Structure formats: C-alpha cells, structure tokens
Amino acid sequence: MSLEPVDIGLLGLGTVGGGVVHVLARNAREIARRAGREIRLLRAAARDPAKRRAEYPGLTIDGDPFAVVDDPRVAVVVELIGGLEPARELVLRAIANGKHVVTANKALIAQHGNEIFAAAEARGVTVAFEAAVGGGIPIIKAIREGLAANHIEWLAGIINGTTNFVLSRMRERGESFAAALAEAQALGYAEADPTFDIEGVDAAHKLTILASIAFGVPLRFDRVYTEGVAQITEDDLRYAETLGYRIKHLGFARRGPDGVEMRVHPALIPDRCLLANVDGVMNAVLVKADAVGTTLYYGPGAGALPTASAVVADLIDVVRSLTTDPTNRVPHLAFQPSAIDDAPALDIDAVETAYYLRLSAEDRPGVLAAITQILGAEEISIEAVIQKEPPAGAARVSVILLTHRVREARMRRALSAIEALDGVHGPATRIRVETLA
Ligand code: NDP
Ligand code: HSE
C-alpha cells in the first residue's frame, strides 16, 4: 500500500469504544485493503485511563479527551463518550482543528447536529454517524445513498434495542420488566442512563435523524412526539396476542402534504408483519419509497461489535474520502445544505391511528354501554371488544377495546370522558395500532 497510514484518536473506551479497538486490531489487514491505506489507532481517552482495557499495540490512553482532539497527528476523531457535554465541545473543537469526526452519539446529532454539520461544512470536514441509528444496520447509508433516487413517503422502525429486548423477554419468558432491563444493561445495550431507552428518548433521537435524511428537513428533536414503554404490562402483551398483534416500541415518520409527522411510542402491530417478529436486541426499519416500494433493514441494534462494525465502516468511508474534493462528498443530512426544506413538523393531535384501550371497569350493567356511547359521540368505531370474566369475588373487570382509525385529538377527548365515568377506575391504557399497510 503506497499511501501513508491515517492516525485515529478515540474518545471513550466503554462498550462501543472497546468494540472498535477490537475490530480495528482483528481486521486491520482487511480494513486497510478496503480503505486503501492503514488505519492506525494512535491515542485514546477515557475517564479512568488506568483501567484494564482491550489491548492495541502502541496505544496511549489519556484522561483528558481534549489532548487527543488537539493532537496534530490525529486526522480523525472517533467520539464514543456519549451525552451532550463535553461531547459537543470536543466534536466542535475537532472540527475547528480540521479533523474529520466519526460518532455513535445520537443524542448529540439529534440535538446539536444542525450546529455541528454547519461547522463541518464551513471547515470542509466530514462528520459520520452511521452507528447513531440501528446499531450495526447500515441504515443511514441505505437511506442517504442507496435510496437517493426515491421520494421517501414514510418509515417505521424498531430503533431501540433495549426496549425491544425487554418487551421480548417479558413476552417470551414471562420475565419482569426490571429483570429484563437489568439483563440488557449487563449486555451493554442500554444507555448510561437507561431512562433514555425506557422513556423513548433514545428512539426519538434516532427518529429525528432518520426523518431528516429521509425528507430533507432540519433535525428537530423537540418536535418528536415521545412515549416510552414503562406502562406496558404483561397483561397488555397477552391481550394484544389474543387479538392477533404484538406490542413493539415503534418510531414512525411520514412526509405528508401538511408537513412531517414524527412519533415514537408503543404500538400494536399485526403478528403476521415482519416488524412484529423482530425480537430481542434486533432492530428493523421499514422504508416506503416511491420507486423501489417497501424495503426492510434488519440487524443487531446495540452491542459492542455490531456498533463497532458501523463505526469502523464510517472510518473507512472517511479515510477513502481524504483524497476527494470536500464539496463532492455525500451531504451530512443526505440533501445539499441549501436544499434543506423547512416543512412544518405536525402536532400529534393531527395524527390518525387505530387504538388498543384497556380499562378497569365495574362489572355491572350500563358501564360498557356508557363507554361505547362516548366513543360513538366522537365517531370512534370499535373493531373488537374483550371483557375478561372477573376472578371470583372481584367487582372490577378488564375491558379491552380495539378501535378503527381516528384522529388523536378525538381519542384524547373520548378518553377524558371515559376516565371520568363512575364505573371506570384509574387511567386507561392506550396503545396505538399500526398495520403498516
Ligand atoms: P460506555 O458508558 O460504555 O462508555 C463511555 C466511555 O466514555 C467510557 O470509556 C468512559 O470512560 C468514557 N468517558 C465518559 N466521559 C468521559 C470524559 N469526560 N472524558 C473521557 N472519557 C470519558 O458507553 P457506550 O460505549 O455504550 O456508548 C458510547 C456512545 O455510543 C453513546 O453515545 C451511545 O449512545 C452510543 N451507542 C451505544 C451503543 C451500545 O450498544 N452501547 C449502540 C449505538 C450507539 P471510563 O471507561 O473510564 O468510564
Ligand atoms: N441504548 C441503545 C439501544 C443503544 O438500546 O438501542 C443503541 O443505540
């Protein structure tokens, strides 16, 4: 190989950083053959530089990540610390120093990507973020490059490995939510703060990125409607199965005539759909585009080596691009910066879906009639009802309703009226149904 090796600085040696060290060492020869030159890990930073880590020949480890970013020998900085600060400052400093950046940090890209990409474009460097969405699935490349000929209509996906792992373990093995989450954490799937996974924030970060590269709109994390999985019970998983559905945590984005719809929340998906059968830590994204039709991207959504696969692929892309004119590189958000379109992000009240409702109701005449009357007044039609026989001596019964499609605002009004009924107790569980037709 005639070109000089490229030296890399790595920030973070945790789950993903450790995976990157491993892959760079194990596949060094193959990576060099693909990149056209050797990719050499020169120095790294971690909070505790003295901790025992994966071995890499000649690697120095610092406690100060800015020392790595300011090292003139480092051509590409790989940010795998996570969180917003100091990651944002480090990435902006790397860019200001004329270095290319690879990151897996979806929070950073979703919340500060507009600023970071503007800085990178001004400096003529690349910021690559394949690992930020879908772990090892090359979904960014697929949408940004593979589907570049298409008008993308919508996309839907299971984009958080931790919640998918937890829901799968609860359904398949009857494990408790807490036990399944502890297992996902031990396997390195969860965020440093797992509430990001459970409350849907991590999926909202990823959906923000997917919507931008699919529709050519700015990154607008604050406009994603976000619900997590904490309220899903084993009963809901069972009732959904009785009705022919699986409950998944879903991200959904659609470009319509009035604007862009972006939402993440649990959803009932028909059990015959491929997405309904994506289990454990696996992720999948379904993309509906006008020329190709529907395509599905499936693979491990988290974990050391799958995520390292995406990080190192970005590194190879960046190294290949070192010899190309910066103005001819693939745009960060798929569309040229001057062509980003400020289409409005729609309010959740404007969204139309079908619903699964679970209510705790008194087992006496008139209660079900009152519920259906309220739904009827909002023009919400019912597809199925399950009323479980109450256990002996119990006065309350679970009533499960499956509705046809209706606007969110109507369902919200109906639910407030239903929850105020005399014979209904506690808040209703409401999960949207997505047939993905
Ligand atoms: P970890 O918590 O496992 O690792 C974080 C690393 O960063 C640790 O090595 C830590 O040092 C180091 N670190 C933290 N703060 C500092 C600091 N201020 N200065 C220097 N080093 C610091 O995180 P992950 O590897 O799981 O995640 C990294 C990124 O990748 C996150 O953005 C995450 O969202 C993303 N990601 C993670 C996936 C996964 O499966 N885990 C999948 C896809 C993306 P020390 O080791 O000394 O504590
Ligand atoms: N915590 C994230 C998940 C890591 O579980 O999907 C991968 O982005």
CATH H-level homologous superfamily name of the largest domain: NAD(P)-binding Rossmann-like Domain
**How many distinct folded domains?**
3
Q: Treating each run of at least 4 consecutive H or I residues as one helix, how many helices?
A: 14
Uncertain spans: none
Largest sheet: 11 strands, mixed
CATH topology of the largest domain: Rossmann fold
Overall shape:
elongated
What does this structure look like?
Helix 7 (161-173) packs across helix 8 (177-186). Helix 5 (106-123) links the parallel strand 5 (100-103) and strand 6. It contains 14 helices and 17 strands. The model has no long low-confidence stretch (mean pLDDT 96). The chain has helices at 15-26, 28-35, 65-69, 87-96, 106-123, 139-146, 161-173, 177-186, 195-198, 201-215, 234-242, 304-321, 367-377, 408-419; strands at 6-11, 39-45, 60-62, 76-79, 100-103, 127-128, 152-158, 225-226, 245-256, 259-270, 282-289, 293-300, 352-362, 382-387, 396-403, 406-407, 424-433. It has 3 domains: 6-136 and 304-339, Rossmann fold, CATH 3.40.50; 139-300, 2-Layer Sandwich (Dihydrodipicolinate Reductase, domain 2); 350-433, ACT domain (Alpha-Beta Plaits). By secondary structure, it is an alpha/beta fold. It is 35% helix and 26% strand. It binds NADPH dihydro-nicotinamide-adenine-dinucleotide phosphate (NDP) and L-homoserine. NADPH dihydro-nicotinamide-adenine-dinucleotide phosphate binds at residues 12-17, 45-48, 51, 65, 80-82, 86, 104-106, 131, 135, 188-189, 191-192, 302-303, 307.
Quick overview:
By secondary structure, the protein is an alpha/beta fold. 35% of the residues lie in helices and 26% in strands. The strands form 2 sheets. Strands 7, 8, 9, 10, 11, 12, 13, 14, 15, 16 and 17 form an 11-stranded mixed β-sheet that branches.
